[in-house]
Design goal:
about 425 residues, alpha/beta, Peroxisomal Thiolase, Chain A, domain 1, 2 domains, 12-stranded mixed β-sheet, two-stranded antiparallel sheet, about 35% helix
């Protein structure tokens, strides 16, 4: 039996949630303003990483200048893996941006949903090396409360006194987008009134990078790292690994309006699916991605013609970019302005979807689409209007943000004007 390529609306009417706060800690900068400037400038931040010296691929996209002690305090930061340091900092930013105060809110009505793929893998790798070199007696007892994937959400709850549902989702590179979708569901269910939803990742370890290189996923442009991530370009040869965190504050529209909040945009649709095909390669026809996109459109009660912008998954790998372009054209058409912000900040793995959804929110708010960095010659198989060179001003009533992950896990959100 062939699976359907579209999904009927499963609500009588659209359920919008307000995005009232954004927090971003990415290779493009710490805070929304730094991210706006660098992403819309369209210049890659990839560079050589001393921590990766000697590897075949020795470059990445790191959050430069991030000082966890300055951001969180020495005692607090020492209790966390870097992934949680990034995540908690982004959550604090988002809460402040939303005009909320954890000292005065009812924390039992505040939920946290964070997406991550690897959790505290840097801590695990460091302590494993300690074990191999010095034996079991010097392994840190903190490992079991820094490495697990749930700890970023746990630390956000502790830091912000967010005492409602506390969840972690791990759908590979779709994790951050999945977290936003689940956060929206929690609001619709009435289980909470505010959700801190997003993603965090800090997995730029030597073992992880070596494995990604061996499987052929990473760009090999060691002579020019800044030109390595080039989504949709005919000369792309793989992605650049990155780290970072993005958190969105979500509220029901009526609640946000009642407290006089600034509403940056709305999350109006969510779709998710599985390819059921391959551990790392996309389905050759994009079947799973198509179902997720159609589901998100149906959930948002939108016609494809109403989508003016797509923040594509756009990894800069040969198969993903062509397959995604084919599906975008099939589901939405050739009219939307497409971009991949991975050209600037690389691939943030489990955090990618949350950060890119935040960029979609900013695109809708700014009515401007950022360019795809390093796009010099569009692959002839990509028959889309991919923005390059300069930002493009446009009327953007609705935007789509796509995320697809290893294991064939797909997640899509639709962002609409406030």
């Amino acid at each position: 039996m062939t699976a359907p390529t579209s999904s009927p609306s499963f609500r009588g009417e659209r359920f919008d949630v307000a995005v009232t706060g954004l927090g971003l800690v990415t290779p493009a900068g710490v805070g929304v303003e730094q991210n706006l400037a660098r992403i819309w400038d369209g210049r890659s931040v990839a560079s050589r990483s001393p921590e990766l010296s000697g590897l075949a691929v020795d470059f990445s996209c790191r959050v430069e200048g991030f000082d966890p002690v300055a951001e969180l305090g020495r005692r607090t930061s020492l209790r966390m893996d870097r992934v949680s340091q990034l995540g908690v900092t982004a959550a604090r930013q988002a809460v402040a941006d939303a005009g909320l105060d954890p000292e005065s809110w009812d924390g039992t009505r505040v939920a946290v949903v964070i997406g991550t793929s690897f959790g505290g893998s840097a801590s695990f790798e460091r302590e494993h090396e300690t074990y191999l070199q010095h034996g079991p007696t010097v392994v840190s007892p903190q490992l079991m409360v820094t490495a697990p994937v749930n700890m970023t959400a746990g630390h956000i709850a502790m830091d912000c006194q967010a005492l409602g549902p506390n969840q972690v989702v791990s759908t590979a590179c779709a994790s951050g987008t999945t977290a936003i979708g689940i956060g929206r569901m929690l609001l619709e269910s009435g289980m909470c009134d505010v959700v801190l939803a997003g993603g965090a990742e800090a997995a730029l370890t030597r073992t992880g990078i070596a494995s990604l290189h061996k499987m052929g996923a990473l760009s090999k442009r060691t002579e020019d790292p800044a030109a390595a991530s080039r989504p949709f370009d005919a000369d792309r040869d793989g992605f650049v690994a990155g780290e970072g965190a993005g958190v969105l504050v979500l509220e029901r529209m009526a609640d946000a309006r009642a407290r006089g909040a600034r509403i940056r945009a709305r999350i109006s649709g969510f779709g998710a699916s599985a390819d059921g095909y391959h551990a790392s390669a996309p389905h050759p026809t994009g079947d799973g991605a198509e179902r997720a996109m159609r589901m998100a459109l149906a959930d948002a009660c939108l016609d494809p013609a109403e989508v003016a912008h797509v923040n594509a998954h756009g990894t800069s790998t040969s198969k993903n970019d062509v397959t995604e372009a084919m599906v975008i054209q099939r589901v939405i058409g050739r009219h939307p302005l497409v971009t991949s912000t991975k050209g600037v900040i690389g691939h943030l793995i489990g955090a990618a979807g949350a950060v890119e959804a935040a960029y979609a929110v900013l695109a809708v708010e700014q009515q401007s689409v950022p360019p795809t960095a390093n796009l010099e010659k569009v692959d002839p198989q990509v028959e889309l209007d991919v923005v390059a060179g300069q930002p493009r001003t446009a009327k953007i009533g609705a935007a789509m943000s796509n995320s697809f992950g290893f294991g064939g896990q797909n997640a899509v959100v639709v962002v609409t004007e406030a």
